[in-house]
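Record 1 of the preview.
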Amino acid sequence: MKNWKKYAAIIGVIALLMIFCLPMYFALKGDFSQKQFMASLFTVLFVAVMCYVLLMLFKYLNKKKEEQQVAGEIKNVIFDVGKVLVDYDWESYLDSFGFAPEKRERIANATFLSSVWEERDRGLYEEEVYLKQFQELDPQDAEDIEKVIKGSGQTIRKRPYADTWVKYLKSKGYHVYILSNYSSYMLDHTKKELTFRREMDGEVFSCYANQLKPDAEIYQTILNKYQLKPEECVFIDDRPENCRGAQEQGIHTICFKDFKQVTADLEKLGVK
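->
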């Protein structure tokens, strides 16, 4: 606190003490009138109420100031892709094959629900290696697994608001980026759905970085690659663990549930 604020606070405290002592002064003096006493008493009550009101007003204005300061920090919006800008509906896709329930469950566990699917996004090996790993998890359905994997680009559909949202943010002066766990095979087979990539100021896909969210390295990769300050970024992802990973790197985060919710949360950060 600056010196003038300290002096003002000291003077204010002294003035308040003098006012609160008025009733006691008149009572001890002994020659006060009832009107003097009541006036001093009401003065004390009025000052107390006004002090409380001013304190609440100060807290409110200070909170607004802090919110504006936070809002002013955001310059970059970083998007996850799956379930944020596109739908990832592997279940309907798998249903389209008409497999018997038991077989469908086996294939789901060997592909979309397996750890291989997640690791495939890291992009360390050629697609044939991952296909073989999928098949090894369910050898009896190897032929059908190959069909499922080769057509898996059909699980991705661009959401109606995706292009408009990204263009709108750019029109408001924000820089927009992608940070997504995505395999090279899926990128090659979903290009027509990812038209918003043309508007991006930059992108980091896990398959090219050979890193996965929520590991700290991939967040540092996008920050370093585009020279971004974490406090000036907000990251939008549908998975809480990925949001926590970004938070640990000092990045503002919003866990995506639906478009209305995320736009409201962006407004709280001043992104309108």
